[in-house]
């Protein structure tokens, strides 16, 4: 057996760039996703998530850089049913029932999964007779998920699939996706929701201004994003010296007080106590949500 065989990544993006006129939507993005991973693309509005996903699906072409899906050009990967997508809106006919919608889509494939099976896996067998126009937003998304399962893709891509759903609908939707992913399918989804990425992804890739700013498991990213704030009374603090301390991300002086954002509050305190006349110390943990915003907006 050849134990040195290299596994072809599910997704390989290298030096990806996408521009729209003067706007650079994706700016030299590199990413490799292994088969079987559940990856969240997390980033604020305009970070470049949709532009990247469109290139992965072969819906648009990069200005430069390369996209491979299971080693293939995305257009070929889509044609072979290796990749399928659940988009946020569009693509459903209101007057058809859920069952008719899936049957119609299935008729377009040469060798689709059985209709009953995909309804079951998307958790919508119980509403198969309901008209699409009467389905809630969450049910319509599970219907789109069922449609995406018809070719039995190896990679499922979802672009902000739960926007506008309430908490219960989001949970039902993700449980269906997660149960399906347990069978080994690779899943990549874009989201604004930190909690959604945290709960449902094995790996979080944070995007800001078209590039990756953090990449790791939820707990690794939490570690990267988490930080402390040290405050002390120190008139005329030497801001340059403080900013040069290990792990310090910002220093601000307001009146007699200095506020230092850092990853290692112990070493900042040690410095302040031994090298400066600072007093009245206050150490607080930055809230994770604030830290996420700091990481994705650079504030
Ligand atoms: N067709 C287009 N024409 C012009 N500019 C575009 C186009 N599509 C995207 N952009 C711009 O590219 C940037 C990245 O947009 P993109 O939709 O990829 O971000 P996103 O992370 O998916 O954002 P959101 O979370 O709001 O969907 C934004 O500045 C956006 O305005």
TrEMBL record:
Q: Which residues form the ABC transporter domain?
A: 11-234
Q: Mainly resides where?
A: membrane
What's the protein's topology in the membrane? Peripheral membrane protein
Which protein are we looking at?
A: ABC transporter ATP-binding protein
State the UniProt keywords alphabetically: Antibiotic resistance, ATP-binding, Nucleotide-binding, Transport
Q: Which PANTHER family match?
A: ABC TRANSPORTER ATP-BINDING PROTEIN
Q: Name one Pfam family in it.
A: ABC_tran
Tell me if Transport is a UniProt keyword of this record.
yes
Instruction: Name the domain of life this protein comes from.
Output: Bacteria
Q: Where in the cell is it found?
A: Cell membrane
| SMART domains xref list | AAA
Q: Which InterPro entries match?
A: AAA+_ATPase (IPR003593), ABC_transporter-like_ATP-bd (IPR003439), ABC_transporter-like_CS (IPR017871), ABC_transporter_ATP-binding (IPR050763), P-loop_NTPase (IPR027417)
A Gene Ontology molecular function term of the record: ATP binding
Q: To which species is this protein native?
A: Kineosporia corallincola
């Amino acid at each position: 057996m050849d134990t040195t065989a290299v596994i072809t990544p599910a997704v390989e993006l290298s030096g990806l760039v996408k521009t729209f006129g003067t706007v650079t939507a994706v700016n030299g993005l590199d990413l490799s996703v292994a088969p079987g991973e559940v990856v969240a693309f997390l980033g604020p509005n305009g970070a470049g998530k949709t532009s990247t996903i469109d290139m992965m699906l072969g819906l648009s072409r990069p200005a430069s850089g390369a996209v491979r899906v299971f080693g293939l050009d995305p257009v070929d990967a889509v044609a072979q049913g290796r990749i399928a997508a659940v988009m946020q809106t569009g693509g459903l006919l209101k007057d058809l029932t859920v069952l008719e919608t899936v049957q119609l889509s299935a008729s377009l494939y040469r060798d689709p999964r059985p209709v009953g099976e995909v309804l079951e896996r998307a958790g919508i067998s119980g509403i198969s007779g309901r008209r699409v126009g009467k389905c809630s937003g969450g049910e319509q998304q599970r219907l789109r998920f069922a449609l995406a399962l018809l070719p039995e893709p190896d990679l499922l891509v979802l672009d902000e699939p739960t926007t506008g759903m309430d908490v219960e609908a989001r949970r039902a939707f993700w449980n269906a996706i997660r149960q399906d992913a347990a069978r080994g399918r690779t899943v990549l989804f874009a989201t604004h929701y930190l909690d959604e990425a945290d709960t449902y992804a094995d790996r979080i890739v944070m995007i800001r201004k078209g590039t990756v700013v953090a990449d790791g498991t939820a707990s690794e990213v939490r570690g990267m994003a988490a930080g402390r704030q040290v405050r002390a009374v120190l008139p005329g603090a030497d801001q340059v010296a403080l900013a040069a301390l290990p792990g310090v991300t910002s220093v601000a002086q307001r009146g007699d007080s200095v506020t230092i954002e850092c990853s290692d509050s112990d070493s900042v305190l040690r410095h302040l106590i031994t090298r400066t006349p600072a007093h009245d110390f206050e150490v607080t943990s930055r809230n994770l949500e604030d830290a996420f915003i700091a990481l994705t907006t650079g504030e």
